[in-house]
């Protein structure tokens, strides 16, 4: 039985659990992951602020037998085994030109894509781009952001909040014409107020040729404090995500 080391925080007194892979049945040990609430605002693409921002190595588990990656490797869609056996997955695991943590997110994206969960695959691909950002690999980050956009657009119709993230990915990838056109369509669609504020910022950044990282607090201004701390609690209220963030950043009850 293999032990999978995984950097990051561990709850005091918690011990690694023995898990059985839902694809191949291999057992391995993984420490539990219980992140603290973010204290800093998320990026415009909703990458969480610190301290969660630095815990990406703990977000996915990986089976040491077949290489299956997932937030919980004990669970696997029926199509996951086929995806893991397929040539693209095996080639990805063997590609040493891709940073190991990014490979994990891309492997999870391949599984999700095989199951038809294209928007979730886009999320995992975007997370690989975040890894590339942290490693100072803009070439990889740009490529994976464009891949994420293709997956988002290949899935079900996007809502305004998701479309903002597409615009941000295109801007960060320096796909200026596509970013500007997508932002203009969204702005003309009379989106919710918080989405409109964010897309106004995105359009200014696109016009300035700014491909850098910016936070939600820049678009939904002060006071900005703990923007995601009650994210899950607020999600039950039926609000759009940008509206939740705006209300929380503004301290409105």
Overview of this protein structure:
- The chain is mainly α.
- It has a domain at 160-253.
- The protein has helices at residues 80-85, 87-94, 100-114, 118-134, 138-154, 160-172, 176-188, 193-207, 216-219, 231-235, 241-249, and strands spanning 2-3, 17-20, 27-30, 61-62, 69-70.
- The strands form 2 sheets. The chain has a 3-stranded mixed beta sheet with strand order 1-3-2, with no helix packed on it. Strands 4-5 form a two-stranded antiparallel ribbon.
- It is globular, with a radius of gyration of 19 Å.
- Mean pLDDT is 85; it is low at 1-13, 223-239 and 246-253.
How are the SSEs ordered, and which strands pair?
Blueprint lengths: L1 E2 L13 E4 L6 E4 L30 E2 L6 E2 L9 H6 L1 H8 L5 H15 L3 H17 L3 H17 L5 H13 L3 H13 L4 H15 L8 H4 L11 H5 L5 H9 L4
Parallel strand pairs: 1-3
Antiparallel strand pairs: 2-3, 4-5
Helix pairs in contact: 2-3, 3-4, 4-5, 5-6, 6-7, 6-8, 7-8, 8-11
Q: How large, in whole angstroms, is the Cα Rg?
A: 19 Å
Strand neighbour order, sheet with most strands: 1-3-2
Strand content: 5-15%
Name the structural class: mainly alpha
Task: Count the beta strands.
Answer: 5
Major sheet attributes = 3 strands, mixed
The run of helices and strands is EEEEEHHHHHHHHHHH
Poorly predicted sequence stretches spanning 5 or more consecutive residues: 1-13, 223-239, 246-253
Residues in helix, %: 40-55%
Distance between the termini: 50 Å
Number of helices: 11
Summed over residues and divided by their number, the pLDDT gives a mean of 85
The best one-word shape is globular
């Amino acid at each position: 039985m293999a032990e999978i080391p995984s950097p990051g925080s561990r709850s005091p007194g918690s011990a690694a659990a023995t898990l059985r892979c839902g694809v191949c049945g291999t057992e391995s040990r993984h420490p539990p992951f219980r992140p603290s609430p973010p204290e800093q605002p998320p990026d415009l693409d909703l990458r969480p602020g610190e301290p969660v921002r630095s815990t990406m190595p703990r977000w996915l588990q990986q089976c040491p037998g077949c290489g299956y990656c997932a937030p919980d490797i004990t669970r696997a869609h029926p199509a996951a085994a086929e995806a893991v056996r397929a040539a693209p997955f095996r080639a990805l695991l063997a590609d040493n030109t891709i940073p190991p943590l990014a490979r994990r997110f891309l492997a999870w994206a391949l599984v999700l894509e095989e199951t038809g969960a294209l928007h979730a695959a886009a999320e995992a691909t975007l997370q690989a781009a975040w890894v590339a950002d942290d490693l100072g690999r803009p070439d990889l980050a740009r490529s994976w952001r464009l891949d994420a956009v293709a997956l988002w657009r290949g899935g079900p119709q996007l809502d305004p909040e998701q479309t903002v993230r597409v615009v941000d990915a295109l801007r960060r990838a320096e796909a200026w014409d596509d970013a500007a056109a997508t932002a203009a369509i969204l702005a003309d669609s009379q989106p919710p107020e918080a989405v409109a504020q964010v897309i106004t910022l995105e359009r200014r950044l696109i016009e300035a040729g700014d491909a850098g990282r910016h936070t939600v607090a820049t678009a939904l201004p002060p006071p900005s404090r703990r923007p995601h701390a009650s994210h899950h609690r607020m999600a039950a209220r039926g609000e759009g995500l940008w509206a939740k963030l705006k209300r929380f950043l503004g301290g409105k009850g």
